[in-house]
Structures are given as C-alpha cells and as structure tokens.
Amino acid sequence: MTMIQALRSAMNVMLERDSNTVIYGQDVGYFGGVFRCTDGLQAKYGKTRVFDAPISEGGIVGTAVGMAAYGLRPVVEIQFADYFYPATDQIVSEAARLRYRSAGDFSAPLTIRMPCGGGIYGGQTHSQSPEAFFTHVCGLRTVMPSNPIDAKGLLIASIENDDPVIFLEPKRLYNGPFDGHHDRPVVPWSKHPMGEVPEGYYTTPLDKAAVFRPGADLTVLTYGTMVWVSEAAAKETGIDAEIIDLRTLWPLDLETIVASVNKTGRCVVVHEATKTSGFGAELAALVQEHCFYHLEAPIERVCGFDTPYPHAQEWAYFPGPDRVGAAFKRAMER
Amino acid sequence: MSQSKPLSLHVPEPSGRPGCKTDFSYLQVSPAGSVRRPPIDVLPSETGDLASTMIRVLDDDGNAVGPWAPDLDRETLRFGLRTMMKTRIFDARMVIAQRQKKLSFYMTSLGEEAIGTAHSLALKDGDMNFPTYRQQSLLMAREYPMKDMICQLLSNEADPMKGRQLPVMYSVREKGFFTISGNLATQYPQAVGWAMASAIKGDTKIASAWIGDGATAESDFYTALTFAHVYNAPVILNVVNNQWAISTFQHIAGGESVTFATRGVGTGIASLRVDGNDFLAVYAASCWAAERTRGGHGPALIEWVTYRAGPHSTSDDPSRYRPADDWSWFPLGDPIARLRRHLTNKGWWSDEEHDKVQAELEAEVLAAQKEAEQHGTLIDGRVPSAATMFEDVYKDMPEHLRQQRQQLGV
After folding, report:
1. Residue B224 CB partners (closer than 8 Å, separation 6+)
2. Integer Cα distance of A299 and A267 in angstroms
3. Of B128, B200, B403, which to mutate for an interface test with A (greatest number of A Cβ within 10 Å)?
4. Which of B160, B198, B394 sits opposite A163 (nearest CB)?
5. Of B161, B193, B398, the CB nearest to A66
6. Is residue A223 within 8 Å of residue A246, measured between CB atoms?
7. Chain A contact set for B232 (CB, 8 A)
8. Which of B164, B179, B267 to mutate to test the interface with A (most CBs of A within 10 A)?
9. What is the C-alpha to C-alpha distance for residues B146 and B150, in angstroms, rounded to an integer?
10. Which residues of A are tagged catalytic?
11. In sequence order, which ranges of A111-253 are alpha helices (DSSP H)?
C-alpha cells in the first residue's frame, strides 16, 4: 500500500469496527479527498458516516468537538496543515482543554488529520510543518508517521485514543519514500518493504519511538520525511548514525531517546519546520537535561530556515541530505 | 466628472451615556399578541417578518394575549416565578460573597432570568444546552443543587471542577449543561456538532446553543449558522441580546438598524425575535423551536430581546459608560415583576406569598452557602490538592506530567 492507501485502510477499519466513527472535511465525501485518502469510503458507509464539509476549519473542528462531547469519534480532515489556523481557537481552547476544565465531565476523543510538510513546490501555504504549534498545547497528542505501516497503525491508535490527536501526514511521503534527492526518480511504496501493509486491524503504539536505523556514532532525532533524508545522509557520509523516528512527537518516548544519546554521546535534531522555537528546541533541551554528562559535542539542529516557505527556492530551503550530512560531520568533529 | 466628497468612518454610539437618557425607540417593540404564530415546519425564507418584529404575550396589564399565549398550568407558572426569584436572590448573595472576598469573581444575570428558566421548561431530559456564563437560570430550573454551584464558585475542596475553573464556569452534564469556556462563541458550533451527532445516531435529542449579542461578531457564530443550515441540525440557536457587551453597545456588534434574528433568515434558518422579559413568550417560542427541531424540520434561531440590568461582572462599573437608571426605562421591564403581575391577575399569587417565598429562598440560598463553605473558601485556602492539578490533562497521566507532579512534591 501507499501511505494514502494505508491511511484509507485505517479509516476503513475503524468505520467498520466502531459505529461511532465519523469522517468529514472539505472534499472528503463524494470526491474522496484531494489526496484520495477517503476514496470510496462514502460509497461504502453512507453519507451520515463520511461526508463533505463547508470550507470552514473552525466549523469542522468546532462541530467535531460537539460530536465528541455527544459520544462520537470524529476523524476530521484539514485539507492542508497550512490551513489549520482558523481552527486554532477550537483546537487550543476547546478540544485540548475539554477534559481538564470539566474535570472529566466531558472529553474530546477526536482525530484531526492534516497533510503537512514541503518538498513538493507547494510554496508558502502548501508546505508548512506547524507541529510546534500543537506540541506546545497541553492536552493534545501530536503524531506524524514516516511510512505506510506506521501510518495505518498510528492512525488506528489515534482514532481509538480518548485524547484529541493531531495527526500530521507528510504529503511528500504519500506515494513513496523521499530522501531529498529531488533530481532522482522517486521509488514507489510498492517497491519498498514498508509498503507491505497488513489488511485488517492492528495498532502502532502512540508512546513509542522507532529506531529506524541502528548506529553507534551519533543519534538523530527526527520524524516524517526527514527520517528518509537522515538515512540518505548517513549513507552518503559513512557516519554510523542511529536514526530515531519519533512517530509521536508529544507526549514522546523519552526513554528511547535518552538510551540512544547516552550510548552515542552525540545528537543531531532534524526537522523541516522553521528553526526558532521549533519542536527541535524542545528536543535539544530534553537531551541536554537528561544526557548532559554523556554528551561529547553540542547538539546540532538542522531545520527549515526562519523564513516563510518559498516556491522557487524550494531545494535551498528544504533541509536535504547535504545539509543534514554536514551537521553529522560537525557533530563528529567537535 | 463630479467631485467626490471626503469619506468618513461611521462609529455607532448608544443614545444614552452617563448623565443622559437612552432613547429606546431603536428596539422596535411590537404590541403584545400582534405577531403571528407560524406552523413549526415553516420555511426559513418565510420568517422574515418574525425576525424583525417582536413576539410578546404579556401586555402592559399582565394579561396573556395573542396566538403565542401558552397554556401553562398554575404549578408550572408558580415554579417559573419561583425559579426566576431564586436565580436573582442567588446572584445577589454571590455578589456579596465576592465583595467579602470569599470568591474571586462573579457574574449576575439580573434582568435575564426568564430566558433560561422558561427555555429549560421547553427542553427534555437528555437535551444538551451549550450555555455562556450568563445562563445560570438553566441550572436553577433543573434544580441543580445550589451548594454544588457555590462550591464551584468558592473553588473549594468539594468543587466539582476541582478548582481548575474561574467561578461561574460550571459543567453539569447530567443536567444538560455543557462545560462553560472563557472563549466566547466556541460553544456555538459545538452545539451544532452535538446536534449533528444526535441526527447521525438517529437519536431524538436536541441541542440548544447560547450566545450574547456581542459574541455574535465572533466567526464561530456564522460558522455555526452555516453548519446548522447545511446539515439541517436539530439545534436551537439562542441569541441573548441584552444590549451590552461589557461597555460596548449592541450597535458596535452589528445591531444598528438590523436585528440579530435576521441573520438567521439570511443563512436559511427559521428565526424569531422574542421579548426576553416575557416568561410566557419565552416558553412559547422555546416550545415552538424545540418542536420544530425535534421534528426534523431544521434548526431555529431566536433573538431574545432583554436588558443586562446589572454590571457585566463584579469587575465592571457600568456607570462609566451608560445611564445609571437605564433599566428603569427599558421598555420591556422586569421579567419577575411581569410574571408576578400575570399570576396575581389570575389569582395564583399574592403579595403575602411573594414575600414569604422571597424569605424562604433567601434562607435556602444562605443555607446552601453555609453548607458549601464547610468545604472551604478561597480565603481559608481549603482548595483541591495541587496534585489534582496534573490530572485530566489527558485521560491517563503521561510521564512528563508525573515527573512535574513529583517535582512539585505533592
């Protein structure tokens, strides 16, 4: 399966298993989504389970909070992560705080899917990685898969989870892994082992990172598309990097991170999002706090630049294998 | 070519400021009994006149007139009057407690008691209100224990919200009262979503959404109307137009020469404009809307015209922006006085009984306060444990919150 098919399969499984699961968003119903993630689901489950929504992110999330308060399990889509901002009040002030402020009287077991990330010539409003907006909000879980197997398992786990989950989908990875080499043809998921996705129900736990590539020289903390870029950088520099795919950004798997950094003594944080106050700052602070006496070099951060995401300058902006590899070398030389 | 005159920005102003008198002619008050009562399945486009006139039942003499006059029995009416009185006495008592620093903050609903009280009588158990911070009469009508309300206000050891919420931000699921948020208007699309869920599950329950005149300017107001209309959601969309949003007159919210009810018609929702200080009109219009939505005929919007007689909150001094005696000139009067007169006319209430009930209720509120204060107040520091501060952020406490709780040493 591609990541698109894996996500669709997850939603299909949950629509089948739990009659309280409902799916809606812009172009999600009849048309099956602009990325085809919900293709065929309305035909199979009917218009009251899978339906089109008005172009109103605040309305989509606001009604989902109300549905969740009633007892449904809404899975709603924001067409691009770049367009979640109108729903910020409903996400931050409502979904995230419902359980806390009502002392458990009400809760919001909803999942908000958002295609995110760049590397597709998406320009300013089709490329952003806004995960740090969500990891900063207490009460939210923020999840981002990097491959079809995890995408399905994590999405099912997110839908089943009783906390509100922000489910970020790197659209650059929808059809195949991408290592940042935009000049080479992209291999489809059908040619990759991680495209072999089980049919039926399974979950990938929300509080566990994955050691994507074991290594001894340094630890890479990353997620989404940058997992593949980091792998390419390790290969091209010959540095034996241990790549940790966080999968769930917050609350995260600190144990796996600390064990790895304490083993390697070096740490590079890689993400597409802009650098300042990005999620990498939290990761670097955590590593500094928990691994201080094991660190042999300053923690490196390779991130998007502190600019809006440009169009023509796509590959100068996107943290590709060269920039990531250079950071690996710096971390090893210090 | 004609010469253009310089443009000028229009900034609406209330006619009445401190030291002068408000001209209430802008309200467009219809005579009692003059507005028609349409069938519950009326087309939204045919409610234009109902959205710009005013449904009223009680005339100036306290008699119930016209097609909206409901057939309410003696006991229900007496319960309604008693509940409104209870709400007002409770409010007054809590303002005193706030002045005594037993609680940090309070908001009264003085003058708006009829709306929640009568509306609640039109709803069934299982229906869900999505209230603002000024619908305490909904809880009073559902006979939620005042002691529990006061414990929330005191943030004490028995506070159902465990001291996490500012006073008046109640949450009472079993009484159909959704958790109140400080963020204005957010509950409006949530109510629509709750109603959509009821429809998705083939349930028979309806939602009732609440918002003030000022908060209709928030985007969530229009969002909710759009979704309610698009999905034919079983929701009553209440707009409580009390003329004021803190210091801001309703014309700044967009009420100048147009009613809030007409916004409903514009989005394809059957809409009514109702005298909010007329208990009988509130009950009749609420029943109409509940029957319509429960019958699957679509949502209904009701603008309740009333007046915020008290300060916005205990942190507010209205004499700085409006005439001190404004309420006494408000053409729709006092909801308690008007129902009292109606009941007296019918021989179902007397001055002696009024005084007796007033005294009873004052004692009841005082007793509830005493009972609540046994669990602590803000002054004596008997608040929920700091350890509970970390609970309910997530369903299960994650590791980082466990560690932070440990660091606090609780």
Report:
1. A59, A62, B185, B188, B189, B191, B192, B209, B237
2. 5
3. B200
4. B394
5. B193
6. yes
7. none
8. B179
9. 6
10. 126
11. 131-135, 148-160, 225-237
CB B55 within 8 A of CB B32: no
**Do the bridges between strand A21-25 and strand A50-52 make them parallel or antiparallel, or are there none, so unpaired?**
parallel
Q: Does A64 touch chain B (CB under 8 A)?
A: yes
A235: exposed, middle or buried (C-beta count within 10 Å: 0-12, 13-18, 19+)?
Answer: middle
Residues 71-110 of A with CB under 8 A from B: 71-72, 74, 86, 89-90, 93-94, 97-107
CA B19, CA B42: separation in Å to the nearest integer?
Answer: 46
Tokens of B405: 């709780």
Cα distance from N-terminal residue to C-terminal residue, chain A: 42
Give A67's contacts (C-beta < 8 A, 6+ positions apart).
Answer: A22, A74, A110, B193, B194, B196, B197, B200
Token pair listed for A261: 């950094």
Count Cβ atoms below 10 Å from residue B350 Cβ, excluding itself: 12
**Per-residue pLDDT of chain B in tens (410 residues, 90 and over written 9):** 678 999 999 999 999 999 999 999 999 999 999 999 999 999 999 999 999 999 999 999 999 999 999 999 999 999 999 999 999 999 999 999 999 999 999 999 999 999 999 999 999 999 999 999 999 999 999 999 999 999 999 999 999 999 999 999 999 999 999 999 999 999 999 999 999 999 999 999 999 999 999 999 999 999 999 999 999 999 999 999 999 999 999 999 999 999 999 999 999 999 999 999 999 999 999 999 999 999 999 999 999 999 999 999 999 999 999 999 999 999 999 999 999 999 999 999 999 999 999 999 999 999 999 999 999 998 898 999 999 999 999 999 999 999 999 999 98
Give the number of other CB atoms < 10 A from CB of residue B84: 27
- The Cβ-side half-sphere exposure at A118, using a 13 Å CA radius, reads 30
Question: H-helix or E-strand containing A302?
Answer: strand A300-304
DSSP structure string for B125-143: TT-EEE--TT-HHHHHHTT
Interface predicted TM-score (ipTM): 0.97
What tokens were used for B73? 């029995």
Mention every residue, 6+ apart, whose C-beta is less than 8 A from residue A90: A58, A61, A62, A65, B186, B189, B220
- Which residues lie closer than 8 Å to A131 by C-beta, 6 or more apart? A116, A142, A144, A166, A168, A249, A271, A273, A279
For A:253-282, CB contacts with B below 8 A are 254
Using the beta-carbon criterion (under 8 Å), do A54 and B226 form an inter-chain contact? yes
Of A184, A180, A220, which is closest to residue A320 (Cα–Cα)? A180
- Kindly determine whether residue A103 and residue B161, on different chains, have CB atoms separated by under 8 Å: yes
